[in-house]
Amino acid sequence: MGGAPTSVPVGNSVQGIKVLSLAGDSAVVEIGGRKTTLRLGEGAVGGAAAAEDGASTGGRAVLQSDGRGHFVAQGSINGKAVTMMVDTGASVTVLPANEANRLGIDYRARGTPGAANTANGRVQTWNLSLDSVRIQGITLYNVSASVIEAPLNTILLGNSFLNRVQMQREGETMVLVRRF
Q1: Which one-letter DSSP state was computed for residue 150?
Q2: DSSP assignments along 44-71, one per residue
Q3: pLDDT digits over 56-83, tens only?
Q4: In degrees, to the nearest 5, what angle opens at C-alpha 95 toward C-alphas 110 and 85?
Q5: CA–CA separation, 31 vs 115, rounded Å?
Q6: What are 84-131's pLDDT values in tens digits?
Q7: CB crowding 14-41: b at 16 or more within 10 Å, else e
Q8: What is the pTM of this model?
Q9: Cα dist. 99→49, 52, 58, 149, 153 in Å?
């Protein structure tokens, strides 16, 4: 992410972005199930279109709620593509063990054992720091996280990330702006 432009053939995907078609100076891509048109010079960052969706770079991210009212973002952890759900009730960013393993995070060796109270009761955690967490134009470093081996279907983007951004919600849109 953030390097030189990448050529991606029609039908292929890179970092969760699938190229659907090309025409003249534009491309139609699919990001998180949504079709978006990108024009020459525009890009998709962290799984969200930088121009047409209203998402932008420079320390800002614009998220749309899903059909259930949740804000789900395509992004990356330690440079690898992930899907995360915003969870203002989570003290830290929470990764299920299967996602930590997929990302190559050796949480048992790197993490400090702990415990947390969740909606499903008390669970064993391994607390560690993620090198980087990125959503659209926001990249934060050394983000506190917990890995749990309890059933969890998605990564929860908790307050260890959210406390470092300004959040504003208007209806179905949430805007995050990097504070520091």
Answers
A1: S
A2: EETTEESSTTS--SSSEEEEEB-TTS-B
A3: 345 899 999 998 989 999 999 999 999 9
A4: 150
A5: 35
A6: 999 999 999 999 999 999 999 999 999 999 998 887 788 899 999 999
A7: ebbbebeeeeeeebebebbeeebebeee
A8: 0.67
A9: 24, 30, 28, 10, 9
